[in-house]
Amino acid sequence: MPLYKVNDGESKIAAGWLIDQAGLKGKTINDIAVHQNQALVLINTNNNGCGKDLVALVDEVCNTVFAKFGIELSTEVRCFGHEGELNLLAKKGEESELTAVKNAKGTR
Fold first, then answer.
1. What's the cofactor (predicted)?
2. Are residues 42 and 32 in contact, defined by beta-carbon separation less than 8 angstroms?
3. Selecting from 1.20.120.520, 3.90.78.10, 3.40.50.970, 2.30.130.40, what CATH number does the domain 3-77 have?
């Protein structure tokens, strides 16, 4: 199991390796899938996936890894749109790019 030393007495385990070893590359729930080549990437395969499916896949991945290895994964969420990465952490008084996109589409 690949370990990366963080500091004295603490190490990180490669989550991608755990997901891969759990056989989850390519796992799909509706249109949301674990990427075939990069286990840390979840993709919307046909642009028809929804948040509910994304959350279900994340839960499935975390539960499967925990069942197999007894290790609880934590998420580091980054979202990408057609123009690249979206800033989800706007400064006080500003809209995030994600909110701005929703507003532009009238789906707020």
1. FAD
2. yes
3. 3.90.78.10
What are the start and end residues of each CATH 3.90.78.10 domain in the chain? 3-77
pLDDT per position as a tens digit, 12-55: 889 999 999 999 999 999 999 999 999 999 999 998 888 888 88
Q: Give residues with Cβ within 8 angstroms of 78, minimum separation 6.
A: 85
Residue 102 falls in which region: left (phi positive, over 0), alpha (psi -120 to 50) or beta:
alpha
Q: How far is CA 48 from the centre of its chain?
A: 17
